[in-house]
Design goal:
Strand content: 15-25%
Number of strands: 6
Radius of gyration: 17 Å
Helix content: 25-40%
């Protein structure tokens, strides 16, 4: 699959087939995503691969009622927990380098965007889940204080084919020379 095609055909998937996801497919997608850019090549991302049903159910309970991804977390064959190491990205010699502070969210997002496309190219789907009780989910997953949980990502073979949502034209958000 060509990268432009992958960008244009990728969708957020919340319903998955029950087919298991082979570890090799995940490893290949993660191998591709490791080439993502990061601040000073800090590569702060950390990924927890969750296949245990009881853990997925516990993570699902950290989402508020009505969150459209609550069942996705419980029913997807795999849930990835995306994290970032604190205090490395956006820092130089231990000091914050910019007014934007710790860049871990930015670097993890770059990694996840690449991972999303790599998974899509392998025939897998996923959805970014950010509305959940992060402290509770961090405890369930045993995440140390030096690492920030950012997102949960249910992954599996799509059992739906959502249409593309309306997108702004590039001319609506592009400013040449000045805002």
């Amino acid at each position: 699959m060509d990268v432009i095609d992958a960008i244009k055909t990728r969708r957020s998937i919340r319903k998955f087939k029950s087919d298991p996801v082979k570890r090799e497919l995940l490893e290949e997608a993660l191998e591709s995503a490791r080439y993502s850019p990061s601040w000073a090549n800090t590569q702060v991302w950390e990924i927890i691969v969750v296949e245990d049903q009881k853990i997925k159910e516990a993570l699902s309970e950290t989402l508020p009622p009505g969150n459209p991804s609550k069942n996705s977390v419980k029913e997807a064959p795999v849930v990835l927990a995306a994290c970032g190491k604190k205090g490395a990205s956006g820092f130089y010699k231990g000091a914050q380098s910019t007014v934007l502070g710790d860049w871990l969210m930015f670097d993890v997002a770059l990694f996840l965007s690449t991972l999303n496309l790599a998974l899509h190219a392998k025939g897998l789907g996923m959805v970014h889940v950010g509305l959940f009780d992060i402290p509770e989910a961090s405890e369930i997953l045993g995440i140390p204080d030096s690492v920030q949980l950012v997102e949960l990502l249910p992954v599996g073979f799509p059992d739906q084919a959502p249409s593309a949502p309306k997108r702004r034209e590039s001319s609506e958000f592009t400013h040449w020379g000045r805002y």
